[in-house]
Amino acid sequence: MSQTATLLVIDDEPQIRKFLRISLSSQGYKVLEAATGSEGLSQAALARPDLVVLDLGLPDMDGQHVLRELREWSQVPVLVLSVRASEVQKVEALDGGANDYVTKPFGIQEFLARVRALLRQAPQAVAQESAPCFGPLTVDLAFRRVTLDGVEVALTRKEYALLAQLASHPGRVITQQQLLKDIWGPTHVDDSHYLRIVVAHVRQKLGDDPTSPRFIVTEPGVGYRLIGPDAI
Amino acid sequence: MSQTATLLVIDDEPQIRKFLRISLSSQGYKVLEAATGSEGLSQAALARPDLVVLDLGLPDMDGQHVLRELREWSQVPVLVLSVRASEVQKVEALDGGANDYVTKPFGIQEFLARVRALLRQAPQAVAQESAPCFGPLTVDLAFRRVTLDGVEVALTRKEYALLAQLASHPGRVITQQQLLKDIWGPTHVDDSHYLRIVVAHVRQKLGDDPTSPRFIVTEPGVGYRLIGPDAI
DNA sequence: TGAAGGTATAAAGAGTGCGTAAAGATCGCC
DNA sequence: GGCGATCTTTACGCACTCTTTATACCTTCA
């Protein structure tokens, strides 16, 4: 998984938080922290993390309670930490909606492996966020497919690279330098006529008219931007 | 979970199997058993259990190997059992595709709770199971069988590896680098002509025409993708 | 009004990538 | 050890994409 996952650590002990923050950050994860249960719940609601690490021994409210409230609206994977090794505790937490239970003290390598295992089976949220739509035009970045009125449009590498770049930032102007650098490489940032030719090809395939564009708008002297029918 | 889930226990020790069978059956689960790795794999392919309990210490083949083969075609949750408590072992298993790792001896209540936790998050995995179908073409990843209009197509290792890779992500473009890395290894990511030859062979065996493809579509300069008749 | 900078489009040549065939090398099986 | 299947290597024709070059247009400002 190349894109960084966001993790929320809910633990009252600062040294544990620090330990986890350092360990998880070094793996490339984005780490959020909360010292209390209520803070953790509001953070989970606001930031929508991809995984929650929850310590059962919190000062303000029972860890079980936090878990139950979280599960009322979220299916995010939860890894529970606890010093209590009692089997009853584990059963309660797991049946309360936790996905894994690790007893302190624990090996950091095992902990990280369990985090990876939990994140691995959770990419359902990531999948559906691709395929931005611009009215009759859809640009599916995951499938590398472009459709116009439902029919597929055949694009060459550079044509697709251009459209994908524009579609990644809908409505925003992408400068010519940016486009040239990403498609032709840093050595061709001055060959802006390359860009015009490819833009013309894409427009032709999309049935787009530069003077009254449906999709690709020219920003003279600056760059291009991709719009939808509702003028994003 | 009201309807009974089917569990597969792969363990060579009869007393462990008996213990688990009794414990799991008393919870209402349907329990299948296998004493060896190869038996476990074929059972998993035939019965499609909802969860697999896998002991790493099998007589005929390495548990890691069983896990790897299973993961080639199935997303079924796997709970690994082991007497070895080494952290390296745990990390290997979890990164190899296991969803949980329990060290023997273990408390049966905790074990059952972990089973429940794994089954709870399982329903999304069920949907994508079984053999993907592309009109007259079926690619059964579990049995390593490819059929066209109902008759089996004989494919070589590389040919099958290519088709399986494409069939794992229907409709999605798989880049040449990805295919070369997975089939020939990271040292041959530049030998794209290997790819063309194998693609040509598969196309020939499937009666597919590159210019108007039924199945394998070329994305020039990028890679290939597998489509169905309904233009996935 | 005319020149200049930036833009759109067309067309031709060069170069690359793709598909196919066939021969040599290697592996596995009997 | 021999044989067949599979994989690797080599070669070549073809289509397509990219680059290059050229020309017309449009807006802005002197």
TrEMBL record, chains A, B:
<dbReference type="GO" id="GO:0032993">
    <property type="term" value="C:protein-DNA complex"/>
</dbReference>
<keyword id="KW-0902">Two-component regulatory system</keyword>
<dbReference type="InterPro" id="IPR001789">
    <property type="entry name" value="Sig_transdc_resp-reg_receiver"/>
</dbReference>
<dbReference type="InterPro" id="IPR039420">
    <property type="entry name" value="WalR-like"/>
</dbReference>
<dbReference type="Pfam" id="PF00486">
    <property type="entry name" value="Trans_reg_C"/>
</dbReference>
<feature type="domain" description="OmpR/PhoB-type">
    <location>
        <begin position="129"/>
        <end position="228"/>
    </location>
</feature>
<dbReference type="GO" id="GO:0045893">
    <property type="term" value="P:positive regulation of DNA-templated transcription"/>
</dbReference>
<dbReference type="GO" id="GO:0042802">
    <property type="term" value="F:identical protein binding"/>
</dbReference>
<dbReference type="Pfam" id="PF00072">
    <property type="entry name" value="Response_reg"/>
</dbReference>
<feature type="DNA-binding region" description="OmpR/PhoB-type">
    <location>
        <begin position="129"/>
        <end position="228"/>
    </location>
</feature>
<dbReference type="InterPro" id="IPR036388">
    <property type="entry name" value="WH-like_DNA-bd_sf"/>
</dbReference>
<feature type="domain" description="Response regulatory">
    <location>
        <begin position="6"/>
        <end position="119"/>
    </location>
</feature>
<dbReference type="InterPro" id="IPR001867">
    <property type="entry name" value="OmpR/PhoB-type_DNA-bd"/>
</dbReference>
<protein>
    <submittedName>
        <fullName>Response regulator</fullName>
    </submittedName>
</protein>
<keyword id="KW-0805">Transcription regulation</keyword>
<dbReference type="InterPro" id="IPR011006">
    <property type="entry name" value="CheY-like_superfamily"/>
</dbReference>
<dbReference type="GO" id="GO:0000987">
    <property type="term" value="F:cis-regulatory region sequence-specific DNA binding"/>
</dbReference>
<keyword id="KW-0597">Phosphoprotein</keyword>
<keyword id="KW-0238">DNA-binding</keyword>
<feature type="modified residue" description="4-aspartylphosphate">
    <location>
        <position position="55"/>
    </location>
</feature>
<dbReference type="GO" id="GO:0000156">
    <property type="term" value="F:phosphorelay response regulator activity"/>
</dbReference>
<keyword id="KW-0804">Transcription</keyword>
<keyword id="KW-0963">Cytoplasm</keyword>
<dbReference type="GO" id="GO:0005829">
    <property type="term" value="C:cytosol"/>
</dbReference>
